Amino acid sequence: MNQMLMYIDPGTGGMLFTILFGLLGGLFYFLGTFLVKIKYSVGGGRKGARNEKRVPLVVFSDHKRYGNTFGPILDELEKRGIETRFLTMSEDDPLLSKEYKHISCEFIGKGNAAFSKLNLLNAEVVLSTTPGLDVLMWKRSRKVDYYVHIPHATSDITLYRMFGIDFYDALLLPGEYHIDQIRKLEELRELPAKETVVVGTPYMDVMRERLLEAEKASGTETETEENRETENPGKQDGKKTVLVAPSWGDSSILRKFGEEFIDALIKTGYDIVIRPHPQSYTAEKEFLEGLMAKYGEGSGVTWNKDNDNFDILRKADIMISDFSGVVFDFTLVFDKPVIYADTSFDASVYDQAWLDDELWTFKTLPKLGVRLSPDQFDHVKDVIDSCINDETYKAGREQARKETWFYIGESVKRTADYLENKIAEIEKEKTA
Fold first, then answer.
1. 299 within domain boundaries
2. Three-state SS for 301?
3. What does the CA dihedral 291, 297, 299, 301 come to, rounded to 10 degrees?
4. Most exposed of 96, 248, 352, 359 (fewest Cβ within 10 Å)?
């Protein structure tokens, strides 16, 4: 009996699954929104009436970890007296406790409850770092004029999951090379050109300012090997601190190398700190909990869960990662080398799957540090020591800053300028 076999390449398969999940997500979203509308109608429309109040700007955050991006922007908007609603899906978001005159801060729930409220927004502009607008659960509101995305990393814009930013109206970008990536995706997908504006990276600017203040307070202007051992918080015995900061998913360093990799690090005798990607706690919870259970107290591994990563980034002497954007936060702000893992990156679920170009991240990493492969695990201590002491990576860091971190120190002002001008532009068009 003849059997017909069908082969689907990984890129096509990833796209098909993304579309399927989008359709299912849209169905669940529709049902949730429908029930919410019925609830508002039966309840006299009190919540609906609240959402009908039009505001110039809404800032939406799907997690408190993005407070380092939105906090300084909100502070600048407050100074300018721009009426804004800040909406968050984290009940314990620190920004909820900020006292503003012109900005209202609100926890909108999680999941369908939150997305249903977002569908009822009435605003001129919505700013968010959340991908997936009009793809999965989050749909565009008919009462919002303009959706603006600001990335939460300086790495490739094509490292979002498939179609993540297709339906935004504008993108506020860290550097100019991101624009070329966006235009190629738009051409391939026959999408209208989005407004693209290079503003820099607010959270990295703030991190840089914090570092300068910390160095000033400790009487140092630069982080050298000597003062890192004496000034870094928690540094008691002079041992090097190795920070493992993976991305999440099947191509991440923890997924690819797992226990063999961790065991090799423990044998170095250094302080090993693992800071999982926040998404790992939900998307690969069982896997992560298994690792944390095995490498618990007394194992030689510390698990860092701080919402603010500043202290651990400053404390670490070196970072080991994969393709996570935190690599650039660490090496470009704190001016330290990195080790990046050879994890055979699978682009099939990312926007990068549409492009033939090599990722900027992978072209840049060799200029910033050493590539680690499994055959080096038995002498990983030597790899770490050599990378830390190699001064040749300084030039690579400087080049990377020029390419992916524009307008250092100016990004918050430039972001606020853009939002203020866009609101004025929309209001002018409506009154013309």
1. yes
2. strand
3. 70
4. 96
Contact 232, 345 (CB under 8 A): no
Q: Are residues 384 and 415 in the same domain?
A: no
Same domain for 413 and 308: no
**Residue of 150, 174, 198, 151 lying closest to 405 (CA atoms):** 174
Distance CA 52, CA 259 (A): 53
Q: Are residues 398 and 312 in the same domain?
A: yes
Say if residue 357 is in the same domain as residue 427: no
Q: How many CA atoms lie within 13 A of 62 on its CB side?
A: 18
CA–CA separation, 96 and 273 (whole Å): 30
State both tokens at 328: 């650039």
Distance in angstroms (rounded) separating the CA atoms of residues 401 and 21: 37
Q: Which two tokens stand for residue 217?
A: 């307070």
- The structure's pTM equals 0.80
Q: What is the residue type of 213?
A: E
What is the token pair recorded at 187? 């051409």
Are residue 270 and residue 367 in the same domain, yes or no? Answer: yes
Both 421 and 384 in one domain: the answer is no
CA distance 138 to 136: 6
Q: Which domain holds residue 76?
A: 47-201+409-431
145: closest CA among 168, 178, 166, 111?
168
Cβ contact 205:179 at 8 Å: no
